[in-house]
Amino acid sequence: MRAVRLESIGSLTMRSVEKPVAGPGELLVRVAVAGICGSDRHMYKGEYPTAIPVTLGHEFCGIVEEIGDTVTRFTGGELVTVDPNISCGTCRACTQARPNLCESLDRHRGDTGWRLCRICGGAARASLHPAGRSRSRSRRLQ
Ligand SMILES: [Zn+2]
Ligand SMILES: [Zn+2]
Fold it and tell me: How far does the centroid of ligand 2 lie from the alpha carbon of residue 39, in Å?
């Protein structure tokens, strides 16, 4: 599939990459729209710690194309938005309903600048995302 990859600081490339496969607890989302955030610009300029190469675009929505094992809340075909703040759900902050303070917070991009940006985003035909951090918008469309 095609993806926009940050290959090195200041170098974006549209290239073919292997299409990911949804693992346990994950969705493969066929990307409909992906935004360009100021965080993407910071990554491009080398201002955020980033595991390069990485696909940009942590703000995106799309259609659930594939469902990993253990996922029960989705059946496929739903329009979803993704939450790029991927909290663990088990640390002290998470269990106190404060996932924004998660001790192992991960992001598609990393708006804070101090977390390693390493998860591929939505500037591609499809992107993996944890089912627990995806929200269906199907009801609003009915
Ligand atoms: Zn952002
Ligand atoms: Zn946590």
Answer: 22
Please tell me the distance between residue 68's alpha carbon and the centre of ligand 2 in angstroms: 22
- Ligand at shortest distance from the CA of 43: 1
pLDDT truncated to tens, each residue of the chain (142 aa)? 999 999 999 999 999 999 999 999 999 999 999 999 998 898 899 988 788 888 989 889 999 999 999 999 999 999 999 887 777 788 898 899 988 788 777 654 444 434 556 577 889 999 998 888 788 876 544 4
Task: Report domain extents, the chain.
Answer: 2-141
Residue 128 β-bridge partners: 28
- The CATH class given to the 2-141 domain equals alpha beta
Cβ count near 132 (within 10 Å) = 14
Contact (CB, 8 A) for 35 and 57:
yes
Q: Which ligand sits closest to the CA of 102?
A: 2
CA of 84 to the centre of ligand 2 (A): 14
Amino acid making up residue 27: L
